[in-house]
Structures are given as C-alpha cells and as structure tokens.
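Input (structure):
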C-alpha cells in the first residue's frame, strides 16, 4: 500500500468531475441557509453526518471487497430522489474514467461493463481505492473529506467568500471527518461480513428536496 495514492485520490484536481458540483450548496445559498462562514460550517457538518456518512460507508465496503453491484443497489435504496441518483451515477462514470486510467484493474473494468451509465460515485471510489492498494478507512476518509470540501469550494464562488475562511471551516471540521471516516470504515467492514444491510441509512431530507428543485432551475452555476 502507498499512502501517497490517497493524496492522489482525494486531491481536488483529480479529474473526477467534482468541481462542477456544489453538493447542495448552490440551492442552500439561494435559500439563505448559507450566507457566511458560520452557516457554511453548519451546512457542511450536517451534510457530513448524513449523506457523508452513508457515502463513506459505501466506499469503505467497496474497498473491503463487497460486491460492487450489491453496493450500487444499496446506494440506490439510500438515495430517494431521482436528481441525486442521476448526479451520483454521472459522477461515478467520470470517477470510473479517471480511476481506470490511473489504477487499471479488472474489477473496475467489470463494474464499468455492468453499469455502462455509471455506478454510484462512492462505490466507484471505494473500488478505485482498493485498486490503488488503499484500505477501507482510506476510502472512507477520501469520501468524508469530499463531502465537505465540495460545498466549501462552491461557497467561495457563490458568495465571494474569503478562501481563507472556507479553508478554516474545513480545518474546524477535521475532528468530525475523523469520526465519520472511522464510523464509515467500521460499517464497511461489517457490510463485508454481514451484507449491505449493515450499512447506515442516514437521511438529509432538505438536501433531497432542494436537489430536486435545483435540477429544474433554468440557469445555475453548478450541475448539482
């Protein structure tokens, strides 16, 4: 295992398409839920402990060797709105392209063939982490951090927020990221032994509702 591979996977410049998505921040800004660094921090913490936890567990389970097709079905069941399922698969397709170019592996090829329109992004990321020789906890860390770094980066553009303030938000959430990565990794390991029903199913109804509304906007800065 090369821990440096985790830096490549979690790097915002990894060409997996995340830069085009706000993780729900754009509709939250429009609704006035995010208006400064303090409200951005609250939004990111909520997203991390709900959608972030589920995604971290899915990625860890894939990295632990769970059947990615079963995990993809489990991700569908935990993503109740069509807009977010479409986003997850679109991001998964882009992640798959980047992962297969970076860490070629028959397991990635098999998932790409089975899900030509894209598997859920956390599942693909977890399989990419496994192909890179990383651990389930590494995969959980990459996804947990991504769940807050995306909205924080988007807020800089949406609010003209000082980048230093946005980065400080991420730093203040470091302990939360540690906890979610640990919980996600533990759930992924349980899923490897007990099946996908052992995965968490934390919900964020407001993210679901605003995602559906955002998908219908005629003009938007971010794809989601």
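Output (sequence):
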């Amino acid at each position: 295992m090369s821990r440096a591979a985790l830096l490549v996977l979690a790097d915002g410049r990894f060409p997996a398409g995340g830069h085009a998505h706000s993780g729900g921040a754009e509709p939250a800004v429009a609704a006035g839920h995010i208006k400064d660094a303090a409200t951005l921090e609250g939004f990111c913490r909520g997203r991390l402990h709900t959608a972030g936890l589920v995604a971290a567990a899915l990625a860890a389970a894939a990295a632990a060797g769970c059947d990615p097709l079963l995990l993809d079905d489990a991700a569908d069941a935990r993503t109740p709105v069509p807009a977010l399922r479409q986003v997850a698969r679109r991001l998964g397709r882009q992640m798959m392209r980047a992962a297969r170019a970076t860490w070629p592996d028959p397991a990635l090829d098999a998932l790409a063939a089975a899900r030509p329109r894209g598997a859920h992004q956390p599942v693909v990321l977890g399989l990419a982490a496994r192909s890179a020789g990383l651990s389930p906890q590494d995969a959980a860390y990459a996804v947990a951090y991504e769940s807050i770094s995306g909205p924080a980066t988007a807020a800089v553009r949406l609010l003209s927020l000082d980048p230093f303030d946005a980065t400080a938000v991420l730093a203040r959430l470091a302990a939360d990221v540690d906890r979610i990565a640990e919980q996600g990794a533990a759930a992924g390991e349980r899923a490897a032994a007990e099946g996908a029903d052992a995965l968490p199913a934390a919900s964020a109804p407001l993210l679901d509702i605003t995602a559906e509304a955002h998908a219908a906007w005629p003009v938007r800065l971010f794809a989601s």
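Notes: The two ends are 34 Å apart (CA to CA). The chain has a mean pLDDT of 95.
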